[in-house]
Structure prediction request, 398 residues.
Amino acid sequence: MKSKKVHIFQESNPEKLYFCFLNPVVMIKRILETSIRDSLGDGKAIILMGARQVGKTTLLKNIFEKSANVLWLNGDEADVQELFEKPSALRLKQFFGEKTTVVIDEAQRIPEIGLKLKLITDSLPEIQLIATGSSSFELANSINEPLTGRKWEFRMFPVSFGEMVDYHGLLDEKRSLNHRLVYGYYPEVIIREGKEKETLKQLTDSFLYKDVLMLDQIQKPEKIVKLLQALAFQIGSQVSYSEIGQMVGLDSKTVEKYIQVLEQSYVIFRLGSFSRNLRNELKRSRKIYFYDNGVRNAVIANFEMAETRADIGKLWENFLTSERIKKLTYRNIWSNYWFWRTKEQKEIDFVEEKDGKITAYEFKWNPDSKIKPPKAFIENYNSSFYLIHPKNYEEFLL
Prediction:
């Protein structure tokens, strides 16, 4: 029987959000919940950024579910935008009333939002202010200067491998690996079992067309769809803006601008090349990955089973790279990361530097792959080397 949503409820433990279905019951606690709870009440605004539908509002509603003193505002709504047109501390205080917490969803839709958040933070210190945004390009640029020293900033992604392991255990999540490689980790995709394709189409239409294509920088919306498709096919390869431009009919500067917008809207991210000592290292190359495998596959309309896919290596590399970045971000692990390649095509998929130590990782879908680490890299950088495959990847992601 297919899953059917009944209602949402919560038991005595306030840290677990329960989505109740006839089959199954889904309980996914988000890692950021603890960090946000710990940041409440210290006089700073909380900024929560991430793509639409990754669970930002659900997370906040879970935190404040038992509180009646929260005012919820949506920056997408015209009357909320009007409220902030010419705000004064007195007017805002009257509007907020007795509420002690104000949550502004999609805050980037409000013009000059940074100055308005600063006004609330400075003039109404009794208010805990929280703002969410699905476009770091607009929101981050608006808040950084006005809110310097006055904010805690968090990034939220689709559900992570680690969060799913916490939900139903390592064994069950490892059994779901092939499914995740194709459909990804968006919360609604996980919940709507059996309707993953339809859900991903709705999700990609939502944030690609509402959040990306409506931005002023996008002059040719049909081109950005072609650009995404081209990038989806080039996962794991070095990306040349000029070559991509020739494929989709754009000049290289426009390609770079569109890629920046897609990155700042949490659709894709760039990985630069590592280069320090060796003459033949590629110094200005980049790879581009998707934050979610399901979105990548939706862009190219390919939901073929993982077991029979010709691009399984690309899916595996995208999965491991995005999940590793989720782990580093959520655990506040301060490290730098790149890929490495030489002109002679010697390469390493993922290079990480933490506390002066360099570690190299190579990703292979076949656990029996025989890979020798590049001698020049290991010797020059005194690096450790690990091969990550389906039999040991949990050590890399947990």
